[in-house]
């Protein structure tokens, strides 16, 4: 009886995944859509592979389902990086990094598609999947403080408390004894949780599509990264913006004054400490920066301001003898490492390379 209920629930999950896939295919082709489709296909493989059906009845289909199932942790990691890490851009990965990923993919296909998981490589893949899942949870949580989007902040909490925990538990069960994870009770519990998650996702999607009150305003969160449009959002002086309330206008002027006196050079500056200095609620400051300057996280604003100052100083002969570490500390960075990474992200050069290129042109 438990097995029949289990199979019925899994059929319901597959039906919802098909419907969800159909809705996604109607959306414009974006990286997000592709990742969501890949995640849905992987979950479908998991639903079918963990059904209460003996392995020998699957035949060669088992190898394909195994590939799809174990790919979920990797797809999930990419999805979380894309959603919550605004600096994540696989298109800019170096050739050695791409080669390493291609080699890992070949080993993955061989271990699961050819050897059907009957090798120590399968345990290595599970361990790596667990590490990626934990790292995805860390990414979601670590950016919570600096995130300027209320909806995305709530999503970070959901990921940490929900999807990340569930994914980690699944991988742990895969590492556990086979007799335990193949019990009918565990299979039924797995099906119930999957059905609950997919049902929630479907209900949320329909609410977003058909209830305008549930949608994010375009100026709050478009869901599109600047890199997808090829556009950069100008950091306009807040005092030039329109349609602000009197309270927000006053806050905009205070923020303008803070930037004008280069208060962003403070070491350890956070959105919370800045809100305290400007004597305003933190959520109001988050919304103001996002809506009037287009930033999705506070560190993005800080890095843009600081790196512009760094470029000016590195171009100034008066700073030629100033060590780069001293410049980094003066600009508000804790150490030279974060400064170098931020500078190279913005300019495609290290601070030292930038300084030498300027000096060679004099």
Automatic annotation (TrEMBL):
GO terms for molecular function: DNA-binding transcription factor activity; sequence-specific DNA binding. Residues 253-357 form the HTH araC/xylS-type domain. Residues 213-232 are annotated as: Disordered. It comes from the Bacteria. InterPro entries: Homeodomain-like_sf (IPR009057), HTH_AraC (IPR018060), HTH_AraC-typ_CS (IPR018062). One of its GO terms (biological process) is positive regulation of metabolic process. The chain crosses the membrane at residues 7-25, 32-53, 65-84, 96-113, 125-144, 156-173, 185-206. Keywords: DNA-binding, Membrane, Transcription, Transcription regulation, Transmembrane, Transmembrane helix. This is HTH araC/xylS-type domain-containing protein. It comes from Pseudohongiella acticola.
């Amino acid at each position: 009886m438990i097995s029949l209920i289990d199979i019925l629930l899994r059929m319901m999950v597959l039906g919802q995944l098909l419907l969800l896939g159909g809705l996604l295919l109607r959306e414009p082709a974006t990286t997000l859509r592709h990742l969501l489709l890949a995640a849905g296909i992987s979950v479908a493989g998991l639903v079918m592979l963990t059904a209460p059906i003996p392995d020998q009845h699957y035949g060669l289909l088992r190898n394909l389902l195994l590939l799809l199932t174990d790919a979920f942790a990797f797809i999930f990691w990419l999805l979380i990086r894309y959603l919550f890490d605004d600096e994540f851009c696989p298109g800019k990965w170096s050739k050695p990094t791409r080669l390493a990923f291609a080699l890992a993919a070949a080993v993955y296909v061989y271990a699961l598609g050819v050897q059907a998981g009957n090798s120590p490589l399968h345990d290595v893949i599970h361990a790596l999947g667990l590490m990626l899942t934990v790292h995805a949870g860390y990414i979601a949580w670590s950016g919570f403080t600096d995130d300027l989007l209320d909806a995305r902040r709530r999503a970070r909490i959901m990921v940490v408390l929900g999807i990340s925990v569930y994914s980690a538990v699944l991988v742990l069960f895969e590492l556990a004894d086979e007799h335990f994870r193949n019990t009918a009770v565990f299979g039924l519990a797995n099906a119930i949780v999957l059905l609950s998650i997919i049902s929630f996702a479907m209900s949320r999607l329909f609410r977003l599509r058909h209830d305008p009150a549930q949608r994010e305003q375009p100026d709050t969160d478009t869901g599109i990264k600047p890199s997808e449009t090829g556009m950069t959002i100008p950091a306009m002086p807040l005092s030039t913006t329109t349609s602000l309330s009197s309270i927000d206008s006053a806050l905009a002027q205070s923020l303008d004054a803070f930037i004008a006196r280069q208060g962003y050079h403070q070491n350890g500056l956070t959105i919370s400490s800045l809100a305290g200095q400007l004597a305003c609620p933190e959520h109001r400051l988050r919304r103001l920066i996002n809506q009037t300057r287009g930033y999705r996280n506070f560190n993005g604003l800080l890095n843009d301001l600081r790196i512009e100052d760094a470029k000016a100083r590195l171009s100034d002969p008066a700073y030629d003898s100033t060590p780069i570490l001293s410049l980094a500390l003066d600009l508000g960075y804790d150490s030279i490492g974060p400064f170098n990474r931020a500078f190279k992200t913005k300019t495609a050069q290290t601070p030292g390379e930038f300084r030498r290129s300027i000096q060679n042109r004099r």
